[in-house]
Amino acid sequence: MQFGIFTIADITPDPTTGRVPTENERLKSMVEQGKLAEQVGLDVFAIGEHHNPPFVTSSPTTTLAYVGAQTEEIILSTATTLITTNDPVKIAEDYAMLQHLTGGRVDLVMGRGNTGPVYPWFGQDIRKGVEIAIENYDLLRRLWTEDVVNWEGQFRTPLQQFTSTPRPLDGVAPFVWHGSIRSPQIAEQAAYYGDGFLHNNIFWPMSHTKQMVQLYRERYEHYGHGKAHQAYVGLGGQAFMRKNSQDAINEFRPYFDNAPVYGGGPSMEDFTAQTPLTVGSPEQVIERYLTMADNVGDYQRQMFLMDHAGLPQKTVLEQIELLGTEVVPVLRRELDARRPADVPEAPTHAARVAAAEAERGAFDDAYRFETGDNWTGLRAEDAKGQR
Amino acid sequence: MLTDQLSREAAAALGRDGTEVEVRTVELREYAHDITDALLTRFPNERLSMVIEQVRAADAVIAVTPVFNVGPSGLFKTFFDAVDIELWKGKPVLLGATAGTARHSLAIDYAIRPMFSYLKSEMVPTAVFAASADFGADTEGQADEQPLTVRVRRAAAELATMLRSGLGDSAEAADGTEQEAAAAPVTGSSLDAEFSDFVPMGKLLGRD
Question: Does B200 contact A188 at a Cβ distance shorter than 8 Å?
Fold first, then answer.
């Protein structure tokens, strides 16, 4: 089981002081959080992608590479990668680069984004959001699995004899999760490819999450990737902790009451009852998150949003430390113990390489393209064996 | 008061052929906070979910609101804004409204009925508007050529006829077939209808 944190890098005023971090501070704070996440034993650090204020994270691979260079173990992921407005060719290249440079510590969560106007900024049509996501992702997979791609579709120019470089590390593409909150189509897409499905349920009641995950699991089995309970499921989470639960409640309330997403709506008590947000002692957080698997089945990844609503960096770092040192060790032990042997572990590059080698033999990483001025990929004699 | 009259008369009209009628009255006022929360969080909490399930299970809905500023009360409108619009499709609905003066009497037709048209509800032709004066005229025929009780009875009879003809049922059935044709092979699962709203990937990619 993997545990991690994600940030969407919003610039939100601290409601208790009115202080607004600068863009530079916000970027540096993300890097610091990623490094601390590794130090306290978390498995995953993920960042969002947004192309508009109040966010600062328009170029995720830049940040992830920078964090990757200063860490050793932690998996670098996204929350989410916009499969609609990014050119799949660029995603294939960027994340294969990151994969090589970080020793395979990369996976991605695909999303369509929640900001309508972003589509035209990148030359796409929001009315075709789902169609674009489907076509782009299908192409992305081919770019990672096939050395030479000939492709024609609706939403980008055709590709003739195109090779996306670098080729994925060890011949194994980064693992992909598909993130969706409300679209059954995305659960279907994840299931079709046998990819992971990450339901970021932080603003949703379990009754909804449970059904989206069940749909994904049923379709995963339908497409023959394994039994429903063997599919790869990830969840979102949210917590604010202090040793003494009343301290946590008092400290977090002004942030809750003014949060851009739920501020002015339900009371913190109602919201914590209805969604995964847990405000209290580390023990209460443990207790709450031990129940998630009862609803969605044994799952592989639990992500937490710790960095939001204008919380100051010092507090966020304290929260990450509590999560890593007090909460996650217990969750990890308990959830690993309840997982039946036939439910797969969370995907890692090493495990995926081992599986690929078991299937097709060892991977030969000898450079297999022509050197010199060459834009058509494989040499003619090798191309015969290809499609 | 109007709600009670409408539901009482509707139950009586349906009961004439022995149909058992169960009436549940939901006072939106009691859910005002839940409705506002749902509008902000985009999901109904448990209390409001129970109301939604009652509406979903109901064979017909009598929807009554006071008229404020030539429209339904904000709370009434917010309830409809906060819940899934599919809930109302093909649902037999009898509309009622109250106001201080009869000069608001067309508010139902101008400001309330259009929303239900959009929601594709099956509307009872007669909507019942009651001004304060109507409640004063308790003897039939005293204040109006068509006193409130007569209008209520007519609307209730129309609702009963509508239900007996199976109008709500047929709307549901037609809807069901349509969805089946579009979504095809969902497994025999217990998921809510919204989770079958997808196209199988093979079809979407043109491979099936």
Answer: yes
Residues B177 and B154 both lie in one domain: no
**B83-B87-B90 Cα angle (round to 5):** 145
Task: Round to whole Å and give the CA distance between A65 and A43.
Answer: 16
Among B36, B190, B198, most A C-beta atoms within 10 A, so best to mutate, is B198
The parent domain of residue B56 ranges over: 2-165
> Is residue A133 within 8 Å of residue A120, measured between CB atoms?
no
B126 and B191 share one domain: no
CATH number at residue A151: 3.20.20.30
Tally Cβ neighbours within 10 Å of residue B49.
Answer: 17
| B110 lies in the same domain as B194 | no
pLDDT by 10s per residue, chain B, length 208: 899 999 999 999 999 988 899 999 999 999 999 999 999 888 899 899 999 999 999 999 999 999 999 999 999 999 999 998 999 999 999 999 999 999 999 999 999 999 999 999 999 999 999 998 887 765 555 555 678 999 999 999 999 999 999 876 644 444 443 333 334 445 556 788 888 889 999 998 888 7
Q: Are strands B61-68 and A75-78 parallel, antiparallel or unpaired?
A: unpaired
Is there a contact between B195 and A215 if contact means CB atoms under 8 Å apart? yes
Q: In this complex, do A134 and B202 lie within 8 Å of one another by their Cβ atoms?
A: no
Same domain, B103 and B27: yes
CB contact under 8 A, A203 and B46: no
B189 and B130 in one domain? no
Q: Locate B12 and state its tokens.
A: 């009586």
Same-domain pairing of B101 and B194:
no
Q: Does A219 touch chain B (CB under 8 A)?
A: yes
CA B68 and chain centroid, separation: 19
Which residue in the set B46, B195, B205 is minimally distant from A184, CB to CB? B195
Residues of B with Cβ-Cβ distance to A138 under 8 angstroms: 205
Per the structure, the count of domains in chain B is: 2
Answer yes or no: do B179 and B84 share one domain.
no
Q: To probe the interface with A, which of B37, B47, B53 has the most A CB atoms within 10 Å? A: B37
